[in-house]
Structures are given as structure tokens and as C-alpha cells.
Write a structure and sequence with these properties.
Layout: E1 3-6, H1 12-22, E2 29-34, E3 47-50, H2 59-70, E4 74-76, H3 80-87, H4 89-92, E5 97-98, H5 103-110, H6 112-121, E6 129-130, E7 142-146, E8 156-157, E9 169-173, E10 178-186, E11 192-203, E12 206-213, H7 217-230, E13 235-245, E14 248-255, H8 262-265, H9 272-280, E15 295-297, E16 303-304, E17 321-322
Parallel strand pairs: 1-2, 1-4, 2-3, 4-5
Antiparallel strand pairs: 6-9, 7-8, 7-9, 10-11, 10-13, 11-12, 12-15, 13-14, 16-17
Helix pairs in contact: 3-5, 5-6
Amino acid sequence: MKTILITGIGGNVGQGILRNIRSLKKQYRLIGTNVTPVSGGNYLCDRMHVVLYAAEPMYVSQMVSLCQKEHVDLIIPSTDHESVVLSQKSVEATLPLVAVSPEETTKLFFDKYMTWEHCHRYHIPFAKSCLPSSYHGQFGDTVVKPREGRGSRDITLSASDPHAFPDTMVVQKRSIGTEITTAFYVTKEGKLHSQMTFIRELHAGTTTLCEVTHAYDEAITTIILQLMQTCTIRGSCNIQSIVINRSSVVPFEVNGRISGTNSIRSQFGFTDVLWTIEEYVEGKKPTKARLKMGSAVRILLDIVYPNTTLKNIRDRRTKSYMF
């Protein structure tokens, strides 16, 4: 049985990946990692391990040891920082396969200001951006956010003085319109396999309501192909955008990893987790996408562990039920 390691199982991205893999006909041994010992993803893992934050110097050596111990065949990162660290050429040489784009691309998408510079250089639509030290009122209404991905945290809308923020932040022109999120999958051969766009509503950075739409496919496809022509992309990626009108779509962020709506997308035919496993574990071409229309609402559920304290929760071997 092949072993797959999924990072960040405390978040909705990692938990969605786990649920998608558990739903497949073929069974895989699933190893989960997180920075805390207990989270919502434990019950889906055959084994769970606590690891350091990706920014810690010993993170890589810890992951190398863990992969050797658990005989891991593939790592699927679910967080931006881990995607960047695990994609480094020197690191990849010591690890099993990692389902991410090359290092240059993950770094580019990790830093929103670098993403803006790249898109501006190649005339790819993207929210106008600058560093706070260079802001002199040129955008009018603004969004100030961390340059590095942080799950929609620490965002300031219409800041009174964007210039006062440090250059670890980025200032973006605030666009008003409908927010959409687009997932797209690029094969190992570098071909666009499929894409899917949701109109969505968020709460605390997580999609709570979403609906499949094809209204903006033409504009989004053009942006995806421009990105593919100017940087090397592999696997699943995500573009977050604001729709001004049908032909004007303004991306404001690109995530170089599987994104948080992967569990919902799979129900409408965009099975990027399956395609990842087919290509990187089974050595097959990804199955054809069979996209469907629909919508989804996210709710909260409870994982109950009878007669078990929190400190004794381990993985799916710990008896539990969902309510």
C-alpha cells in the first residue's frame, strides 16, 4: 500500500485532501502532520505526527526523518510556507516526491508583491500593488495585507495611512465586485488539464458558500495561459479574483498549491486530489475532467471521542464518531 503524507491537517485544505483520498476506491496509507497534536484532521489519518513550523531551521530534517520512518511515497503540502520550503531543489533531493511547482514558482506565488511584479512585467492582469514605503496615494481605496500568504489574516481595508505599514506588507488597489476563486490543474507535461471557478462568500478566510460558474471562463483561461507561459507551473493552483464585469477579472492572489475548496470541487468533477495521486503516485495520466454545475454550503460538524481526553487523541485508531 502506497503512503501519502499530507501536511497542515489542522486546516480546511489538508482536511479536504484527506477526505478526498479516503473517498477513492483504492486505499492509501495516510500520514498527517500539524504543529499541534490534536485537530480536526486526526480522525482521517493512519498516523499523525507533530512537526515544527516550516520557518523553523530544523523543519526539513524533521520531515526527512519522518518520511524515512513512515516510508512516504508522496508529500502533498496544504500550506503556502510548507510548499515553498519543500519545493527547494536542495530539499527535494532528500525527500520523496512533493506535489508542488518548482521552487521559483512557489516563491513567486508565496509573495504577493513578487506576484504583482511578475504579472506587471508580462502584462498579466493583477491588482495594482506597491510596498507601503512606495505608497503615495496612487490607488485611492486600498487593501493592506501581508506579502506572504496568511489565510486572509491581518488584512486592513481602506487604511488611513498605508505608508505607515512595514514593507513586509503589500498595498493593493481595492476593487469592488464579485469575488471568485478559480482552481486549475497543470499536468506533469505542462498542459492545462482543467479549471473550475466558484462565486463565493467567505468567513474568516474560509469559503462558506459557493456556486460553480462558467461566466468568466474566457477571461480566466487567458490569465492562466499567460501565467503558464511565463513561469513553470505543475499540479493544482488557485487564483483569487474580483470580477468587475464579464470581461474584466482582476486577480489579487495566486496560491501554488491545492486550495481549500478541493473537497467541494471534487463533487462537481474537478478532482485535483485524484489527478495528483494518479500522476505522482500511480504514474498515470490524469482522468478526464467531467465538470458539473452546482453549489455548496459549508457547515460545522463535531468529531466526538467517547471516554477519551484530548491528550489521548491520536489518529483514526482512536475511537470516535461524527455528529
